[in-house]
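User: Structure tokens for both sequences below?

Assistant:
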Amino acid sequence: MVASLADPNMPAMVETIIPESRRDFKDPYPSSSTSIGGPRNSVRPLPPSYGTVRPHNIHRPTLIEAAGMRFIIMDAPRQNNLHLYIKECSRQKVTDVVRVCEPTYDGRDLRNAGMYLHEMAYDDGTSPPREIIDGWLDLVSTRFKKKRRLSTSAGSISGGAARAGEGGAVAVHCIAGLGRAPVLVAIALIEFGRYDPVHAVTFIRQHRRGAINGKQLAYLEQYSRASQSNDCGCVIS
């Protein structure tokens, strides 16, 4: 029987939340910048609207820690406040940053800070395509489980950085950090933490208010572990 989101018998889970008292993340206003390019399969070019992206409500980075994995869910940094995110990611020993949306900052700054940037964008309001899921799970498996799960078309996974499983973390962000990014974290909890989908969503929502809407919850409830099926086959329409 699938547990409900209000299930009082849900097992206690380890949680760590970056304190709300941190005031570094209060500048949501983007600054003007010119479009730049980047190496293939590493940093996507910034769109023409990069310098005119409307301000969005900022949510402080949230640490999700479970089943030997550590994830930082963030909203999208802007070029003028990227240094604040880099500072927080460095504090949390982030080895990899996964960008699930269009570029809003120059990814070379992350590389200069010793972090790998992975491009895994997919359309807002949709379920992640199979190639994105495979690339994400391969990254999580490599960083936390110390083995490659499969080859990925979502971008190469580099070695050489300190493994996230040795006290580090993987950061993932979309625009607001409430939809696409939490969905990927939920998939990791389902795959590697053996969480029930509803428990995974509940756990994330306990840490990050407003994460994962009804459509995304319905998708995750139908999600099949890769070990049980080679193709999820379920989509958000």
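Moving on to the next sequence.
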Amino acid sequence: MQRLGPRARLVSAVVLVLPLLCFGVLPWARGQGDLVSNTTTVLYWGSATWLPLHCVLWSSLAYSQQGEDQESGRRASLFGLNLAAFASVPGGSLAAVFALLLFGAPLQTDREVTLLFSLFLGTSLFVPLLSTARMPTESLATAMVRTALGVRCPWSDPLDEARTAAAWGAVLGTWLGAFVLPLDHDRPYQVWPVPCMAGALLGLVIAALWLLASGICAGDKSSRMQSDGGVADADKSQ
């Protein structure tokens, strides 16, 4: 099983927390309000800040984690990985629009915020998937299913662990946030897509914490195994 190293795990966690900073902290610090009081402006400026950083950071992570291609013996260029990441934004956003429409998103009455939220959700899912020297669709799908069933996943790419955390955090956060929408309380935070966006941001933060916690647990387990192995070797030498 290939797992992320401590430094790459920390960087991956920072990338997952980055949307909260761009859509939550920075707009508030600039006096632009928050998602509840000024939804459209925050989504515009948050996307302009977060999207390029998201693409570049995931591409850099993929570049640092990739191995040589077994057939050609070559490594993908950082430019090529960035190009794939940015090129995945339109297609990912379009896929997110169709998915949200299937679940009843209001495209006619709230077209602007629906498209902006689709941009965020599609980019969150597809950029990590396509920021790689190979197409990990099958391995990533298998990893997500195994994670959902609680089965230990043999990661085929170290970065697949972070990709899976990002995918589950965004999707489950959006889905859970949607439960607030039909409540008949007429509160500002119930306006589309505020609860779904807030749920996705919270889901990504939880995914980042899980990524760090799993790394700490794996490190402790590895240390115990090395310690037990050292004791066993010492017993054999005696």
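User: Anything stand out in the second?

Assistant: The chain is about 70% helix and 0% strand.
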